Queue: 2 jobs
Job 1
Amino acid sequence: MNQILIAGGGLAGSAAAIALARAGRKVTLIEREAAPAHKICGEFLSIEAQSYLAETGLDLAALGAAPITHVRFVRGGSSTVAKLPFQGLSLTRKTLDEALLNAAAQAGVDVRRGHAVRHISAAGGALSVAMDGGARLSPQILLLASGKHEIRGAARLARPGTLVGFKTYFNLRPEAIAALASHVELIIFSGGFYAGLQMVEGGLANLCLLVPTALLARVGGKFPALLAHLQSLSPHLAGRLAGATDHLSVPLSIARVPYGFVYRPDAQDPPGLFRLGDQAAVIPSFSGDGMAIALHSAARAAEAVLAGRPAPAYHQQLRADVAAQIKRGMVIQNLCARPLINAVLPGLVRLVPAILPLAASLTRVPAAARLYT
Ligand SMILES: Cc1cc2nc3c(=O)[nH]c(=O)nc-3n(C[C@H](O)[C@H](O)[C@H](O)COP(=O)(O)OP(=O)(O)OC[C@H]3O[C@@H](n4cnc5c(N)ncnc54)[C@H](O)[C@@H]3O)c2cc1C
């Protein structure tokens, strides 16, 4: 059996696989999706995420990534446009994750698609992985990169969140497409929840929403009713979606996003079980830095494995790198949910333009921790 097994071929799993295979390690990666698939994500790539992706050799522009230079904050009838402190990019996860998986295969990783890891056990420190279909693998090192999906035997003890996320794509009218060029829009609702809208490759607009579970229940639990409700609250969103056609028949959704979670290592943790990406840390989505954290964790895990360091040391390092950033993200998210602040957000950004670069810098992977810049 290969010594290194990676469960999950999202950003974190593929990036770690590439780094380890290029360093000469034999790596097997298990990805449960048999074919390219959409993922729930706002698909905004921060400058840090771009640096880490450049290290994998991906040419993001050639994949169709488009620059995002400005953010438009919208709240009711009020809106403000601010220049981002860096140039972001938009790229669908379907394209990005597929390119990374292909790069992993090219680097020599044994990529097995359409298979899922069902159970992990680490009795006495020896790892045993049960696959669907009944096969059992015994890797020396397991990189757990299954995103927000829990695997039996290795479930995180994350506090369940209260927000539910949706993502879908729309074909918008030409005027709406023109208005969104190079912009990401954050449409803020009272209560602090929000919708993000931006163009991605293929002429589609990504609409990503985060709403309280209780609100979804109040409108009957169905996405069309939720979207209709949000449009009734936001004339701006209603205007953007007027005459639009849905590109996905069913939106992607995720319940109880565990924002604020950072894996806390335990001395009893098996030395060969490394948690990457969302299995290790989850920053509020408004920061647009979740992918950077996933890629950072991949680089840190590969670094630790190559140096022969045990998993608890890696988890300690990752915690030191990102815990403060994630905590600040939570503070900002909670502040923005306060009615007084929430009501005046666009005006506040207009009056005090320094707020945006400050919030951005507070919620980035800190420069001192970054492995690539
Ligand atoms: C609503 C929302 C909006 C977001 N917007 C942004 C944004 O705009 N910018 C940003 O930077 N971040 C954003 N994020 C965060 C970002 O999407 C995640 O942090 C990132 O996807 C984490 O990468 P990952 O590799 O850990 O997990 P994932 O990308 O989820 O990959 C996990 C992989 O594991 C596979 N898998 C799962 N279970 C198994 C199994 N049992 N066996 C084998 N394979 C398995 C899955 O199929 C998947 O391919 C957002 C998150 C949410 C919830």
Job 2
Amino acid sequence: MATDNAVTSEGSAVVQSLEETRELASRLLPLMRKAGSVSLEGPLGAGKTHLVKAVASLLGVTEPVSSPTFTLLHSYSSGAYPLHHSDWYRLESEGEVLGLGLEEYLGEGVLLIEWGDKFPSLLPKDTLRIRITPQHDESRQIQWTLKP
Ligand SMILES: Nc1ncnc2c1ncn2[C@@H]1O[C@H](COP(=O)(O)OP(=O)(O)OP(=O)(O)O)[C@@H](O)[C@H]1O
Ligand SMILES: [Mg+2]
């Protein structure tokens, strides 16, 4: 797993392709691990699930990765460390988010939350926020920040 060129806690990059998104995911991985939780933000089709798939593949996860739309949380245990994947797109109230009991998934591995910006005050402390903004074709602006 490449950790060279690891990024600092705040930054921005423009990626031109799926492969470049994957390369950036690999550079972001140490920061994701340090944070423990990651909020993936951006419009429909921005590439949030693609980023989760890239992280899973970098960790060597062998289970198929899909968006946890109805189950609300998927955990993958076959990689280098546990990967948990939640999606808040369909959640309508803070109570539903609290009902997920996400604190149980913190502390070991990484928790990735698609649409985490729907309920920003419920994101775990030390969440790395990643915003993906589609530009044109396959290019995306990816901005990240981890507040101390
Ligand atoms: N550079 C890129 N990075 C990520 N995805 C890209 C890129 N270029 C094209 N795509 C395409 O954009 C689509 C992103 O879909 P994806 O399901 O990851 O979006 P999403 O943000 O999870 O959407 P949703 O809000 O519906 O969950 C995929 O079809 C992917 O192939
Ligand atoms: Mg998605």
